[in-house]
Specification:
about 180 residues; alpha+beta; 2 domains; 4-stranded antiparallel beta sheet; 3 helices; 4 strands
Length: about 180
């Protein structure tokens, strides 16, 4: 007996493409923009210049009875706006996790730098002189000085300057540009 209420292969393909596009429209901009102010501005411009006019025109034509397709377009407009905002929120979360990861990996790096200083009487001129297991985050920059060193973590979302490690207090201090 054949089941007649299953969706066709064409419908399933379109649904799969729609789901893939939805996921990509949230996570690709989130990863590239990381919730930065530029990312938020891009989302707002997209909503104001594309989504809002599409929504207004769609509801206007749908209200005056031209076609229900326009109402579907209005729904699509709000879905696109939701994805644009969701991408910014997800981007901020990705940025926060990347910063937390850089800070935690830097803590072990500080210990390795202190051990190097005890053995050699000075801090290394670059992080490559430490053991290979002490891989530094791509956000981290190391600046040796005569009596110490400075570690800085750049803000990947470019919302502000980043963080600097205070060698004397053993804490991260936020840098504002």
């Amino acid at each position: 007996m054949r089941c007649n209420y299953l969706p066709s292969k064409g419908l399933m393909t379109r649904l799969a493409a729609l789901v893939l596009a939805a996921v990509a429209s949230v996570f690709v901009p989130a990863y590239l923009g990381l919730g930065s102010s530029e990312h938020w501005m891009m989302a707002v411009k997209f909503i104001l210049l594309f989504v809002l006019p599409l929504f207004v025109v769609s509801l206007t034509f749908g209200y005056f009875g031209h076609s229900w397709r326009w109402v579907h377009s209005a729904t699509l407009a709000w879905v696109l706006a939701t994805f644009a905002i969701a991408g910014c929120v997800v981007g901020q979360e990705l940025c926060s996790r990347e910063i937390a990861s850089a800070k935690s990996s830097s803590d072990s790096l500080v210990h390795a730098l202190e051990s190097f200083h005890e053995e050699h009487g000075a801090y290394p001129d670059s992080l490559s002189r430490l053991s290979p297991s002490q891989a530094a985050s791509r956000l981290l920059s190391y600046l040796p000085s005569g009596s110490g060193f400075e570690l800085q973590i750049k803000d990947p979302g470019n919302r502000f300057g980043g963080w600097s490690y205070n060698l004397f207090d053993h804490q991260w201090v936020e840098i504002r540009d």
